[in-house]
Design goal:
By secondary structure, this protein is an alpha/beta fold. It has one domain: D-tyrosyl-trna(Tyr) Deacylase, Chain: A, CATH 3.50.80. Helix content is about 20%, strand content about 40%. Strands 1, 2, 3, 6, 7 and 8 form a six-stranded mixed sheet that branches. Strands 4-5 form a two-stranded antiparallel sheet. α1 (about 40-50) runs parallel beside α2. The longest helix has 16 residues, at about 100-115. The protein starts with a strand and ends with a strand.
Amino acid sequence: MRIVLQRVAWARVEVEGEEVGAVGPGLLALVGVAEGDTEAEARRLADKTVRMRIFAGDERPFDRALADVPGAALLCVSQFTLLADLRRGNRPGWSGAARPEVAAPLVEAYAEAVASHGVPVARGRFGAHMSVSLENDGPVTIVLDSTT
């Protein structure tokens, strides 16, 4: 799994002009599922997402975790393009990305695992052409990978 986390002041996702998910302060998680990923990896990365200290505390700029920030939420958006392979040529290859029937439940497992920590989770729509808008806060962008 590869997850790009962006600390946001707000984020929203639309499908065909309809808002399907939105959050105020918190994180936007772009989630790509690789062939061979498991639910255990999704849960482990969700736990890391919730506990990662990337929010300002009273004395330090990176002292609080998502679960420690009142009102903070996560917007989870599937994004298979994070698994693009450009080692050969200029056209991305997607052979490393999991098939939709495998990826969709793992994206949902990640979102549910984050929610199990008491963090509100909004979602995009798996497989849809989505328009994502956000105001990056910092900017702070972290890449998590199932190998890290």
